[in-house]
Amino acid sequence: MSTIKIDGIEVVTAKDSLVVECRIEERSTADFDVIDLVGAASYTRGQPVEIRDPDDNLVFGGFIDTPSSQRAYPGGGLIHHISCMDNHYLADKRLVVNSYVSQTAGYIVEDIFDHYLSLEGVTIGEIQAGPTVAQAIFSYVKVSDAFDALKELSGAFTWFIDNEKKLYFIDRATISAPWQLDWATHKAERDSVSLMTGNPLYRNFQYIWGGTDITSVQTATFTGDGVIKTFTLGYPLAAEPVITEDAAPMDVGIKGIESGKDYYWSKGDSAIYAEVAPGIGVVVAVDYYGQYPLIAMSLDSASIAARKVIEGGTGITEDIEREAWHESKESARESAQGKLTQYCQDAEKFNYQTLESGLLPGQLQEITYAPFGFTAHQMLIESVSVSSQGGIIIYNITCITGPILGSWSKFFNNLFIRQDQSIRVGGEMLLKLIAQPESLDLVEDTDIDTDDFSGGLVNRWLNSAPIDAGSLGNVQHEALALAEAVDDGEHTTEDYEWDDGCLWDMATWA
């Protein structure tokens, strides 16, 4: 029987109610019913959950997502249905605000870990260096989204937080399964094996739509009339322009950020703005690099011909992806070719059930199964589903591979890697809020006064009655003084990447 703990306390669950779904590069889930005979228990989102199989293997680690309760009949008490989310929740709930220049993907992952995930109790399992990232801007995006972007750029890499809260950023071919399916020492349950072929994501003609390329140097001229301050260019600006008035160079700044300049510009804006309208007859010349939208395509002629023989017609299977991050036509073309490398092929999906534990998504397993002609056929474990039947834990395993390119390991090692090596998630401008703590000091101040009451009653009372006229009395007053103390801290920032594409290196904000 499995063992389930919530907040470190073992709970009693309904028979065969446990279901665990683990899938590579997706969030794992767990569901079970807790039997509460007394009806005194209560559960809330965020409580830690631990599920172990009969061999004490940790098959799920995470947190309660959505608890619900209902009355149990006929004996009374409550049944609590618990739905759980895995430890990736810790990366989903934190936002990254940072930028990086010329750092490896692994360095960026470790830096994000240091600033965010380590504070959530996550530790490092393994972080590999990966490719060098020319530029990365994360502007208030989830840690998980930042890691996804780094994974995409790194091609063959994946990332995950395992059941023990260990963070991994590794090549997919790194982890081997603890045992291989060979029917001699390890075998599948009877009548549980199946094989599906065919690729529902197949395409042999790929479009990439989105992003921008940069024009050659463009020159635009205008004649001032003493009134007009805005001048519209033929293309949106890609970088800071060079502006002259009657051949005299003008001072140019970023719109909305800088001041005291002659002209202002903004990346992606097709206009420049003068601080003072050029005089009548003044020639304004603008030399600039513009942006224009991209659409690229790639096709596999041999695959098209093969599909034509099978299907008739043209043999073309088209697909389009929208990717806004491209900044050159070469980058868009490479992305289109990369999609064909990944999807223009058949695929295999091998399913089996086992009573043996230890397998996890992302592991490489060798499959030997004569009826399908598999001999040490290397496949990637895509998903592991855990369920209970008659008190017995059953593991449903799904393995996948790309047979045209050989083993799954080789398939991933041949995956396309983005060549532009830059990431922008959440916007091109990074604004980081600096927190300034304030504190209130409470100071007790005792003031002792002697008052003469001979002139009559005054507004001072002792106990419940006023002092008689003519009597003398001392009244002790206590006061609390509130003093506001502002703690100004200096915060060292990182390099900031603004929308002009140039680095602005700030030292400190005080």
Can you offer a commentary on this structure?
With 510 residues, the protein is mainly beta. Among the domains are: 3-86, Roll (Phage tail proteins - horseshoe like beta roll fold), CATH 2.30.300.10; 438-486, no CATH class. The chain is 12% helix and 45% strand. It is built from 6 helices and 33 strands. It has helices at 89-92, 105-115, 143-154, 301-311, 329-343, 408-413, and strands spanning 3-6, 9-10, 19-23, 29-36, 48-52, 58-71, 78-86, 95-104, 123-127, 132-142, 157-161, 166-171, 194-197, 205-223, 230-232, 242-245, 248-249, 252-254, 263-265, 271-274, 283-299, 318-322, 348-354, 364-369, 374-389, 392-401, 422-425, 438-452, 472-486, 491-492, 495-497, 503-505, 508-509. Strands 1, 2, 3, 4, 5, 6, 7, 13, 23, 24, 25 and 26 form a 12-stranded antiparallel β-sheet that branches. Strand 25 (374-389) and strand 26 form a beta hairpin.
Reported for the largest beta sheet, the result is: 12 strands, antiparallel
Structural class call reads mainly beta
What's the CATH first level of one domain? Mainly Beta
How much of the sequence is in beta strands? Answer: over 45%
Radius of gyration: 34 Å
User: What is the count of β-strands?
Assistant: 33
Cα end-to-end separation: 59 Å
- Low-pLDDT stretches are 403-407, 416-421, 461-465, 488-510
In CATH terms, what is the fold-level topology of one domain?
Answer: Phage tail proteins - horseshoe like beta roll fold
* CATH architecture tag of one domain: Roll
Number of helices: 6
Mean pLDDT: 81
Overall geometry: extended
Q: Give the CATH superfamily of one domain.
A: Baseplate protein-like domain - beta roll fold
Helix content bin: 10-25%
